[in-house]
Structure to design on (351 residues):
């Protein structure tokens, strides 16, 4: 028997989900055309006023604005026929340094769709999809998605939560940022601690080129360099700190990476591992954050890991227990959760 109330409730959920899916293209349009920033800077505007200010066609814009108002992304005043970007929504759509700036997340959702044919084939074959071969500019989208979190938490909260690390960085330390991607984490640390030296390693050459450009643009080239290197055999040793941001679960051989990282550290060194927030059991992750991370894991993280040697396939929701097993398998004797955010857990490992 069909429970009509449950059916109607589920249809309501589906309408919300489809509305969210429709917003991916619309938000990315608003971002690309500068509509959010123009509207926030200019205050309430009619469609005609905003079209002139943003140099876009008014009829197209009117439809976009109507969608945004129906989505509660913009406010609409029927008396004046003006649209505005409330300050709370501006934190999400207009302020790139905001801790809740989420436009990068919409870029990731678009990249998931581009990636679908390759991952669909992998579902049949069991093979992986290499990071550099994934649909769209996946690495660009992921870098943009994670950057606000790093900008707002890395120097202010995560590093201070580690035992004695900030003091070392202030005096002058040697740091390896393994799996650095576009280098935003590396650049932020290098800017905050000019007496320390930072080396970013990533196995994706294109990302390393972007990281080098970011270092130059942000004036940290003197104490920062980037090299192509694998987590399990990058060069260098006697590091005071090694960091891995949202990448350990993507690695084909995370246990091998753990062993190599331990060998590259000083005896009193620290490994900071930033990973997606997750419980150890599925039922602990049946929530909005888990929903997003499981999708990203199926479409990005798992294919990346399975494309590499060993192919451990931890997944983005591996959980702390599994991560601890991987970390200690490399020889680390102490692992603790130093701090956390709704999206990340920050683990500190010591030899």
């Amino acid at each position: 028997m069909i429970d009509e109330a449950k059916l109607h409730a589920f249809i309501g959920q589906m309408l919300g989900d489809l509305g969210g899916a429709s917003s991916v293209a619309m938000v990315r349009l608003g971002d690309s055309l500068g509509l959010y920033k123009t509207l926030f800077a200019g205050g309430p505007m009619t469609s005609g006023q905003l079209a002139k200010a943003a140099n876009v066609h008014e009829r197209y814009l009117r439809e976009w604005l109507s969608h945004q108002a129906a989505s509660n992304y913009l406010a609409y005043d029927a008396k004046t026929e003006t649209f505005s970007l409330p300050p709370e929504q501006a934190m999400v759509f207009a302020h790139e340094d905001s801790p809740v700036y989420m436009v990068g997340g919409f870029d990731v959702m678009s990249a998931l769709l581009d990636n679908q044919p390759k991952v669909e084939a992998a579902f049949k074959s069991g093979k992986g999809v290499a990071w550099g071969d994934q649909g769209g500019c996946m690495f660009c989208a992921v870098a943009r998605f994670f950057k606000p979190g790093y900008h707002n938490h890395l120097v202010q909260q995560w590093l201070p939560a580690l035992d004695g690390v900030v003091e070392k960085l202030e005096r002058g330390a040697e740091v390896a940022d393994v799996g650095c991607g576009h280098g935003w984490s590396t650049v932020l640390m290098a800017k905050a601690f000019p007496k320390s030296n930072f080396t970013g390693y990533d196995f994706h050459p294109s990302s390393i080129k972007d990281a080098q450009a970011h270092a130059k643009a942000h004036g940290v080239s003197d104490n920062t360099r980037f090299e192509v290197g694998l987590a399990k055999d990058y060069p260098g040793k006697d590091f005071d700190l090694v960091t891995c941001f949202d990448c350990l679960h993507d690695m084909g051989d995370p246990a091998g990476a753990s062993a190599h990282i331990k060998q590259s550290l000083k005896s009193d060194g620290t490994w900071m591992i930033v990973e997606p927030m997750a419980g150890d059991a599925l039922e602990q992750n049946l929530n909005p954050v888990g929903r997003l991370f499981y999708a990203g894991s199926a479409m990005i993280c798992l294919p990346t890991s399975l494309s590499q040697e060993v192919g451990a396939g931890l997944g983005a929701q591996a959980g702390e227990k599994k991560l601890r097993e991987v970390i200690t398998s490399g020889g680390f004797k102490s692992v603790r959760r130093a701090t956390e955010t709704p999206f990340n857990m920050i683990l500190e490992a010591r030899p």
